[in-house]
Give the backbone structure.
Amino acid sequence: MSTVLYDVHDRVATLTLNRPERLNAINAQLPRDLRHAVERADADPDVHVIVLRGAGKGFCGGYDLVEYAETPGEMHGNQEMPWDPTVDYAMMSRNTEDFMALWRATKPTIAQVHGAAAAGGSDIALCCDMVVMAEDARIGYPPARVWGIPTPMMWVYRLGIENAKRMLFTGDLVTGQEAQAMGLIQKAVPADELEAAVAALCDRIKGVPKNQLMMSKIVVNQAYEAMGLANTQRFANFFDGIARHSPEGLWFRERAETVGFRQAVAERDSGAPIAPGVSKNLGPVLPPGDETQ
């Protein structure tokens, strides 16, 4: 079954991440399904705008780290040592290319974010041309504290140097209101107005001819590509693999296997040093049901 639902109505293609039982967490299939859905919408002559949203309680909680981090032994995303970085780089580059289908599409793409767009979920949202969030929704890349680097690396292009560093140095999750104030997203609205706000934006865009939209998007995108976007992503994809196989990254994986993902995250975020061999409880567990990374 596809992890992304597809619907078209009145010149708007709506793509819905569809793993609500896991907060739409990213597994091996979801990036491929997302790319296929975006390319299908981009090829549809009846579509002028593409909206991406999440089913259930949130947009996307990131990679399925309960699956990836808690499972013992070698698996998709983690190798037994010695580590072959070329294998890791090929895997993450493919995922980044799939997410960037939202950037490459010739039609405008809008992320409609409620709940959380955390870690890999923020990667997906920020590959869209515009992001509209609920005011109480959250976005950020917590694995920047240990075990991850955002591979599309859209933070620097959306925020500039200082705020991009703040988000990556802290791994903070910020609300929709904070994200709007930082200039990260198009706008934040009350949660009960989110769907209507996105619909209003689509109504304004979908009356523009597809060729005009295509030219506008290409000319803006090329400016960022000329700044070195592809090379930035090349470094980010390589460093993401290093982060998961560094001494601290291996510690985090070992803790997730031993005590569970939520407890490992609580220890990671406790403020105590992150170091190999640490096995004691360094902080409180996450609140029940909070599986954002």
